C-alpha cells in the first residue's frame, strides 16, 4: 500500500491571529505546516527545507512578501505561492502574479476560496512534475534508440554525421506545453483594475463594492474603453438579454447611477463614467 506524503505548506504572516487560523485549518486538512512571523524567518525556512506551497502576506514589516516570493521562486521554482493581501493592495497582488505567484486571496481569507486555491495550486504542481518526468523518460528512450541506430549504421560502414542523428531525434520528440495559456484574467484602464476571476474592481487601490450586475456592466465598459457603448449593447453583453432601446436605456441608467455613486464613495471621483448624449456610455482614464 502506497503512503501519500502530505503536502508541506509554509505560512508567512506577521499577524498572529492569521497564522493561528491558517495553521489550525490546514493541519485539520492533513497538511504539514510551518509558520513564520516575518520575511526574515521565512527566508531561513526556505534555506533549510523545501515546501510544496507557501501562503505569503504581501505587506510585512522588514522583508516584504514580494521579496520572499522572489527568493523562493529563485531557490525553489516548483513551490506554489499564494499571496495574501488587503483590499487596497490589488495592484501589488497583480504584480506578484506576474512574478510567478499562483494566486492571491483577500484577508481575511474565505475558507472555501483558500481550500480551492490550494487544491488547484498543488494539482498544477503535480501535473508539471509528471510532465517533466515524461519528458525525461522520452529523452532516455530516444537516446537508447539512437544508440542502437548508430551501432547498426556503423556495422554497415555508413555513419551519418552526429548532427543529423540529433536532428532526427529532436524532430521525433513531441512538443509539450508545460503551462497551457490561460484566459486573460485582468483588465486595466487608467487606475481601474478588474480581476475577472475574483469578480472585483479597484480604483486607485480602493475596492469598489459592486453588485454582480454592476460588476458586469463596469467590467464591460472597461474592456471596451474608450469606445462609447449603447445601453442596448451593455444590456446584451453584460446581462445576456436583448431589450428595446427605451427599456435598455432605463435599466442601464439605473445601474450607471449606482456605479457612479459607489465610485464617488470610494474615491471621490465623479467623472469616471461619461455619458455621450444620444449614444451611450464610456469610461474615462483617470
Question: TL;DR of this structure?
Answer:
A hairpin with a 2-residue loop joins strand 6 (186-189) and strand 7 (192-195). It contains nine helices and eleven strands. The chain is of the alpha/beta class and 286 residues long.
What do you see in this structure?
- With 286 residues, the protein is an alpha/beta fold.
- It has two domains: 8-121, Response regulator (Rossmann fold, 3-Layer(aba) Sandwich), CATH 3.40.50; 186-283, Arc Repressor Mutant, subunit A, CATH 1.10.10.
- Helices cover 51% and strands 16% of the residues.
- It is built from nine helices and eleven strands.
- The protein has a five-stranded parallel beta sheet with strand order 2-1-3-4-5, with helices on both faces. The protein has a four-stranded antiparallel beta sheet with strand order 6-7-8-9, with helices on both faces. Strands 10-11 form a two-stranded antiparallel ribbon.
- Helix 3 links the parallel strand 3 (53-57) and strand 4 (80-85).
- Helix 2 runs parallel beside helix 3, helix 7 (212-224) packs across helix 8 and helix 7 (212-224) packs across helix 9.
- The longest helix has 46 residues, at 111-156.
- The chain is globular, with a radius of gyration of 26 Å.
- The protein starts with 7 loop residues before the first strand and ends with a strand.
- Mean pLDDT is 83; it is low at 162-182.
Amino acid at each position: 500500500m502506497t503512503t501519500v506524503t502530505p503536502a508541506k505548506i509554509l505560512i508567512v504572516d506577521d499577524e498572529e491571529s492569521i497564522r493561528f487560523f491558517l495553521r489550525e485549518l490546514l493541519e485539520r486538512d492533513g497538511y504539514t505546516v510551518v509558520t513564520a512571523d516575518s520575511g526574515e524567518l521565512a527566508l531561513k525556512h526556505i534555506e533549510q527545507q523545501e515546501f510544496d506551497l507557501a501562503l505569503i502576506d504581501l505587506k510585512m514589516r522588514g522583508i516584504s512578501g514580494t521579496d520572499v516570493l522572489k527568493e523562493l521562486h529563485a531557490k525553489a521554482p516548483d513551490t506554489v505561492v499564494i499571496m495574501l493581501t488587503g483590499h487596497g493592495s490589488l495592484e501589488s497582488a497583480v504584480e506578484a502574479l506576474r512574478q510567478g505567484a499562483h494566486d492571491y486571496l483577500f484577508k481575511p481569507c474565505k475558507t472555501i476560496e483558500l481550500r480551492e486555491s490550494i487544491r488547484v495550486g498543488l494539482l498544477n504542481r503535480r501535473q508539471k512534475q509528471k510532465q517533466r518526468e515524461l519528458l525525461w523518460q522520452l529523452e532516455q528512450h530516444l537516446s537508447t534508440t539512437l544508440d542502437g541506430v548508430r551501432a547498426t549504421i556503423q556495422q554497415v560502414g555508413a555513419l551519418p554525421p552526429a548532427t543529423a542523428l540529433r536532428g532526427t531525434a529532436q524532430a521525433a520528440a513531441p512538443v509539450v506545453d508545460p503551462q497551457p495559456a490561460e484566459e486573460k484574467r485582468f483588465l486595466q484602464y487608467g487606475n481601474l483594475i478588474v480581476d475577472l476571476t475574483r469578480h472585483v474592481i479597484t480604483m486607485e487601490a480602493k475596492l469598489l463594492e459592486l453588485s454582480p450586475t454592476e460588476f458586469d456592466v463596469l467590467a464591460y465598459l472597461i474592456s471596451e474603453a474608450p469606445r462609447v457603448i449603447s445601453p442596448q449593447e451593455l444590456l446584451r453583453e453584460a446581462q445576456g438579454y436583448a431589450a428595446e432601446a427605451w427599456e435598455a436605456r432605463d435599466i442601464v441608467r439605473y445601474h450607471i447611477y449606482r456605479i457612479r455613486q459607489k465610485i464617488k464613495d470610494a474615491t471621490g471621483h465623479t467623472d469616471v463614467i461619461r455619458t455621450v448624449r444620444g449614444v451611450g456610455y464610456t469610461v474615462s482614464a483617470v
